[in-house]
Structure formats: C-alpha cells, structure tokens
Amino acid sequence: MSALLEGMIAGFGIAIPLGAVSILLVNLALEKGFGLGFVAGVGAATVDCSCAALAVFTGAAIAELISPYSLELQVASGLVLVAMGAFGLLHFRKVRPGKDIEEDGRMEALKVYAKFIAITLLNPFTVAYFAALIIGKGPTWSFTTADCLLFVTGVAIASVSWQTLLAAIGAVARSRLTPRFMGITVLVGNAIVVLLGVQILLTL
User: What is the pTM of this model?
Assistant: First the structure.
C-alpha cells in the first residue's frame, strides 16, 4: 500500500469520528455560511497535518513528550468546550440568512482559522494517534523522506475533504431551513458542545 493511501486512511480515521470540533464547524457553517465553515475546516486539518508530520518525523519521541501533560490538556479541553458552548448559548441571536464571508471580512476568517487550530490542538491524542500508527508498522514502514511527505499529503487530502463536507452540509442546511429552525439547531449544537466538555471532565 502506498504511503499516500495510508495517509488518506489515517486522515479519515482521525477526522470522521464526530466530536466537538465537527459540531462547532457545522454550527459555524449553519450560522455564517460555507466560506467561514471551510476556513474552520482548514484550521482543523492544519493541526491534523502538523500532528501527522510530527509523528512520521519524530516517531515515539513526541508522544512521550506530551504524555506527562495529557491530564492538563484534557482538563483544558473540557473547560474550553464548556466555555465555548456556554458562550454560544448565552449570546445566542437569531441566525440571519445571507450573511457570508465577504461581509465578515478577512479578519474574521483569520480569527476563525486561529480559533479552530487552538480548539483542535487541545486534543492530546491526535499526535499519539499518528505516532501509534507509524510505530505499529515497525519494519514495514520505510521512513524515507518521500514516504513521510506522501503520508502527510494523504492526511491533508482526507482531513480537508472531510471538513469541507461538514461545512457544505451546514451551508446547505442554512440555505434550506427557516431562521427559526436554524436557531434551534445552533442552540442544540452549543448544548452538545457543553455536554461533550462536561463528559471529558467527568471521565478524568
């Protein structure tokens, strides 16, 4: 199996399971359209690619480096998710159709990109996931520079394509649902984010 295909499989493996980042991304696309949803997805995919690169070029070292701080990262992740969901609930306002990325401007796009990078970075298991895949291959993985680059490229293709699909789902729903129903959906999404954060804190 080529390194590119292996990277795509690994990328889908980390991106497809629906979690808080996925819900926040769909919520954003519902509220503000495909443009900002796509930017958010690229932010999440940037972290996936960076973690894959760290894993293939450093192997077990990076996983060992972050392992002493996994509890702190989990606590931070739970607290941030609760805070974000609560903020969304407390500052909820009716979704207004027709507002797109041009109206929000480049600065908001940069803020969304940075925000989703930060959120995704709070997951301490992304690097460990890729490191485990690479280490588990043992002698079957050549670790040549070309293989490493192909693997990371495969991760990028898979992650960006999946995040783009989520943004498209949110944007399509935005164009077809009534403002009232979209508002309810955003409320439910923020409530789920709060619950996911609480679940992380309760399982520590």
Answer: 0.73
